[in-house]
Amino acid sequence: xxxxxxxTKESICKTxxxxxxxxxxxxxxxxxxxxxxDNGGIRVSSESAxxxxxxxxxxxxxxxxxxxxxxxxxxxxxxxxxxxxIDMIIRYESSTEKLSDLFANNDCCKNALLxxxxxxxxxxxxxxxxxxxxxxxxxxxxxxxxxxxxxxMGFEFKSAKRKSSLVLYSKQSDTICDLLTSIGAYAAQMxxxxxxxxxxxxxxxxxxxxxxxxxxDKVITAAIRQIQAIEKIEKTIGLDxxxxxxxxxxxxxxxxxxxxxxxxxEKMVPRLTKSGVNHxxxxxxxIAENKL
Length: 292
Hints:
Blueprint: H1 4-12, H2 20-34, E1 35-38, E2 41-46, H3 49-63, E3 70-72, E4 75-80, H4 83-94, H5 99-103, H6 107-121, E5 122-124, E6 133-137, H7 140-152, E7 158-162, E8 165-170, H8 173-182, H9 186-236, H10 244-255, H11 261-267, H12 274-290
Antiparallel strand pairs: 1-2, 2-4, 3-4, 5-6, 6-8, 7-8
């Protein structure tokens, strides 16, 4: 079964940028995370044939030359001998300019480069397990430059080292959803939102249930104390010694151990308010504690 991450990536492979500058920006995004210079060409690897076929279309539209996608032991790859693409990599590696200034001067190109980066090195955790999006590379320069680009675009990502890899990551659902929207991954964005709404609703229900349980525990604890006082009066001076209004409450409480004071008041004839029942209960407790 395909992972949430792979399904998201393959879903955005169905659309292509129209402008040549955006095509090159998306290509550069892929190359940053999935490309390496190898024997005079650029080798690009991916777990998905669908992603590399999409990439091959981009390369043909940019250079005019076809690209062959081949299978490997752990996925798929293609080799790009094109001087234009090699020059793009060299230009990036030798420049002191910002990544956005080199390949993404406007918003559409920034989104295209970001889309390419997701295809080349992005990882999305299934939101049912956790909110987490990562970009994985081995290059400190890519982490620095791409991290700056994310910040320029308003996406807050943190960096970390994980064994031999460097990672840019965010665990903020809002950040992840906004990023997915910017690259056209609407289905994944909606899935995360749906999970978030369901999770928040469950948390609300749990809070209400916990609150009700806590209130119920308080009612039971108070009722036990009241019943103990009533039984003490009954065994010593007898309930008949109580004034009529107190005796009625005492008898009703013994018969209804789990009711709240408000519910007891509703059973009284005539009906009493919660404060009225509480006032009489306090008198019964006072009699039991201080006069016996």
